[in-house]
Structure formats: structure tokens, C-alpha cells
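subagent[fold] <- orchestrator: predict structure for attached chain, return C-alpha cells only, no commentary.
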Amino acid sequence: MKTVLITGCSSGFGLEIARYFLDRDWRVIATMRTPREDVLPRSDRLSILALDVKDPQSIRAVIDAAGRIDVLEGTPMDTVRDIFETNTLGTIAMAQAVLPQFRERREGVIINVTSTVTCRPLHLLSVYTASKSAVNAFSESLALELEQFNVRVRVVLPGRAPSTRFGENARARMKDGFPEPYDPLAQQIFAKWEKETAVTHASDVAEAVWLAATDSSSPFNIPAGEDAVEWYHARAR
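subagent[fold] -> orchestrator:
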């Protein structure tokens, strides 16, 4: 018998998903912040557990109590938090800091540098891509909110930049950030990247940021670098 663990089962999508799997003879681990026994039909295939996804101890307790399930391994949570603190929350914090004076002056440009990894899925970059995709989405909504104040928002999307300090830091973090079973895949991916000749240079990004800052007719998304331009335009094919 297969087992599914579902979060947020007290109502809405989570509750309906739990019902759906129960009806199809799966073992269901239904989690919610405050467990309720009355929201799902009683079944010997159903376990209702308390879970706060913001609490690592609560997560661990649910996994231990659930028994055998398929758990996705990946980047350690400390690394995940660090990536999101830097790439996503740091970007939002900077925007919040400058917005009061931009609104008062009714002018200004916010340029967020993300990545063309958000244009297509790539091995080993799930967390990094998620952090940059969040900035893309944040920027899109922010642009709509700031139109009334004559403040522009642009997103610059570089490609892979192995010659920069960022490239060095990224490689080091990736090599240290995966469980041992992923080592063969990581080595294969690193070797493939080393053979690629189309890359992004720092000057490409500087030119794109300049365009975003000085040309009010510039597009919202600006790919920067030979590989970035290729990836960005390939996404619509």
C-alpha cells in the first residue's frame, strides 16, 4: 500500500486531496496545525498529525511518526534559509528601504538581478532557482503597484558567469550542499558546464543594468550574456 503525506488538511486543497487519496485506497498522513478528527472519514488507512511547517522539530516528529514514506533529500535547510535570506528576503528588504523616497519624489528605478535559470529547470539548482523565481514574481507585482508613483521596476537575468566571484561561490556551495548519493550526478553536471563556451561576463550584466536604469522604454525582463539571451528566448519556443 502506498503512502502519501499531505500538509494543510484542515480545509481547502489539502483536505480535498486527502479525501481523494483515501477514496483510492492509499494510506494517508493528513497533517494540520491543529488536528481535527471530524474533517475526514474515519479509516484505518488515515493518520491525522499536528504539523507546523515553520518548526523543524514539528517536521521531524511528523516524519518519525508517519513511518515509511518517500522523503525528498536535497539541500540542507540551513543552506536553503541562507540562500533565501540573501537572494529573496534581502532583495525585498532593499526595495522596502528605498521606496519611501521614490514615492515622495515620484521617480526612481528598482533593478533586481535574478538569473536565467528561472527560464528552464536545471540539475542541482532547485533551491537557487526557487529563490530567484520568487524575486521575479515579487518584481512583477511590485511594478504594477509602483506605476502610480512613476517608479519603474526591471529584472536583469544573467546566465552562467564562471569567471566572477559569484561563480566561484556558487560552485563551492553546490559541492557542499548535496547528500553523498548525488555526488555522481554533481560531477557529471560540473563536467558538462566546464565544456560550455557561451557564458555571461560581468560587462554583459553592467550593460543590461545601465539599459534598465537609463531607458524608460526598456523591456521589463532583460537577459544579459550570450547564454542568457539564448535561454531566455528559447523558453517561448
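orchestrator: received. Logging for downstream: The chain has a mean pLDDT of 84. The first strand starts at residue 3 and ends at 6.
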